[in-house]
Each structure stands twice: as C-alpha cells, then as structure tokens.
Amino acid sequence: MQTHFTPEQLSDPGIERANEILRACVHCGFCTATCPTYQVLGDELDSPRGRIYLIKDMLEADRPADAQTVKHVDRCLSCLACMSTCPSGVHYMHLVDLARAHIEKTYKRPVVDRLLRWTLAQVIPYPNRFRLALLGAKIGKPFRKLIPDARIQAMLAMAPKQIPARSRNDDAQVFPAKGPRLKRVALMTGCAQKALDTDINDATIRLLTRLGCEVVVAKGMGCCGALTHHMGKEDASHASAAANIRAWCAEDRGEGLDAIVINTSGCGTTVKDYGFMFRNDPLAGDAARVSELAMDISELLMTLDLPSVTMGQRVAYHSACSLQHGQQVKTHPKTLLKRVGFEVVEPADPHLCCGSAGTYNLMQPAISSELKSRKVKTLEAKSPEIIAAGNIGCMVQIGSSTGVPVVHTVELLDWAAGGPKPRKLG
Predict the structure, then answer these.
(1) 106: helix, strand or coil
(2) Where residue 329 sits, what CATH number does that domain have?
(3) What is the rounded average pLDDT of the residues 274-299?
(4) Residue 137 has what pLDDT?
(5) C-alpha dihedral over 362, 367, 369, 374, to 10 degrees?
(6) Do 181 and 296 share a domain, yes or no?
(7) Which of 23, 230, 321, 409 has its CA 20 to 30 A from that of 266?
(8) Are residues 92 and 29 part of one domain?
(9) pTM of this prediction?
(10) Contacts of 108 (CB under 8 A, 6+ apart)
(11) How far apart are CA 254 and CA 8, in angstroms?
C-alpha cells in the first residue's frame, strides 16, 4: 500500500511503525475471510482491510478521529485472526492499537461512552474493586431489563452466581518445588481472574510445584495493562506494564527466573509485546527481557514431564484468539490434554472468536452475543463432557450460554497429575 506521510510525521516512532505496517498491506483481502465482524456484519469497513484504509486516512491527514472511524475501530475484536491469515505479514495489532491511542487523544466520545469506559478502566484491573463491582452487579442483575442501555445490561449480566473467596495463593510469596527444583518461574496471577475464578491459579501452582518448579508470585505485580491498552489509554497501560517489568526483573536479578508463566492468554499476548511497547523507553532493556521470559502455561508444560495416564473424558478444546493468533500457540494445549489421556475434539471454525475479547462483550454486546451463539453451537455439536480453554474471558463468555462445564486447561492437567477434580465438574 502506498503511503504519503511527511518526513516530520515519520519522525514520530508511532507513525514510523504505522507506515511500515501500511506499506506491507497489498489489499489482497484474505483477512476478510477470517474476520468475525465482517462475517457477522458484511461491511467492508468492518473488515481488517476496511479498517486499515480508515486508519491510514486518519493518520496521514493528521486529523482528529471522526465518528465513522471510531465506530468501525471500536467494532474490532483484536482477535488477530487476520494476522494468522495475512500472507504479507501485516502487523495489524500494532496498527489498531496505535489507532486506538490516536482516537483516545483526539475524539470526544458521548458522555455515557466516556463514563462506561472510565468505569471499566478503573474497576476491572483492580481485583478488590472488581469483586465489589461483581457483588453490586449480582444485586442489580434481576433488574437489568429495566435499563435501556444494552451495555449496562451486559455488565450486570456478567455477574456470576457465586463470587469466589479470595485465594491467599495470589499474595506475593514463593512456593517451593516438590522434590528437586528443576526451574524457578514467576507466575502472573492476573487481575479479573483473581475475582472471577481463583481455581485457575491454585491449580497452576499445584501442578508446577509438583513437576519441580519453584513458583514466585512477585511483589508489586498487578494488571498486565491489556484492558487499558486496547482502550487507547497509553499512560494507564504503560504504568501497569512498568510495575510488572520492575517486579519481575527484581526477581530475575535476584535468584533468577527461567520463565514468566501466564495462564490467561489475553495477558500473555500483551506481556510478550512489552519489548515493543517500551522500545523507546528507559525500561527498554528490562521490557525486552520480560518479553523473552514470558510463556503461556502450555509452553512451559511442554518442557516438563506430565504423567502418562488415561483420563478418558471427551474434551472440546476452545482455542482463545489471544493464544492461537496473538501468540501463535496452536497445538500445545491439545497435545498436553491428549498426553494425559483425554479425548480431545475441536469445533468447526476453531479460528473464529467467541466474542469475549477483553471488554468487547460489554461494549459491543450485540455482536458479541452473535459470536458467542455461533461458538457455543459448534462446541456443543461435538457432544463434549467438558469444554477447555486457556483464557478466563473465553471461559466466562462460553460458560454463560452452555450447560457443559467450562474449565481451564491447566485445571484438567492438574487433575490428571494427581490434583483435585475441578469443582466445576461436580
């Protein structure tokens, strides 16, 4: 794609990167075939190619975002299926994130939109606040149909039947390996996950220590910054990321780390991109080190010796977009589940998003609901006893519309390796 940025514009590192990405695009349209919003809406501007044109026009003209551009960029899930499909290597993730930052700085949203986005940014990344919000939503849930705004209805509907008690395993501490220490790893405990499902981190710690890993929950670690990053709130996202970088590098410089383990793939995609995010920052070296150490839990488990057992249950595996497209980790979870004896099946169109996508299911409930229905239908068509996924957002999204228990992959692996049966399985 031909671009016409001025030398002055290209002196900005963000515009320089946008120019590289735009020039890689050859208008082939392969991305439209795998874009969930294009499949649902059928609008060229709701495809990656269409959004790229809108973003190019906005950035080249160096103008504030307009309502049309904002509408179509907001509708993007950032599922990144287009990046898996693109034959030209267009790094759509960096481009759309840059566009969102530009929108945040230049576009004045309606008051209700600003309030909702501010609320999400101030609540979800903070587990204690989020837990209180979930409690409030649980109280308000029976009355949600009385509220005219579908987004607020979606937020109330998100409240789970039961809000788990805090797990002390999420506090900063060190869990020694059972037997000889083979690896020393830091575990990212997440933010929303600590309020929605404490079983995931508990299972991760049990499994890793049983397999010879010393597990560190680093002091000062918090939200990865993904939620605010995808809202275009650069200052907030970079502040969250910087706190994590300092916390993990302190551990790495101390007794050393073999990996930073992440069991929420939405977080993992962002942490692995810290090196890029901080490329022009004094923390650049430390950020690059964190990105180098970051691993999805399935990547680490592939290097460890899981027991060979025969579990037998039929498991439908849902591949989170942030894992299969954002991190290009596609086979490890299925391989691990098969290794411990589960029968693993995969739904039709496994590359398509379930519609969760961070806060997307709250801010774009109609599109999200359509994608969720499609995903649940394809999963249930496989007649599974269990649905497994590697991302809390996907688990909550799918679990809200199916009677099949939805558990994290690591919970099943922990169970197979001698841990307790996941509570969701009864």
Answers:
(1) helix
(2) 3.40.50.1860
(3) 97
(4) 87
(5) -140
(6) yes
(7) 23
(8) yes
(9) 0.93
(10) none
(11) 43
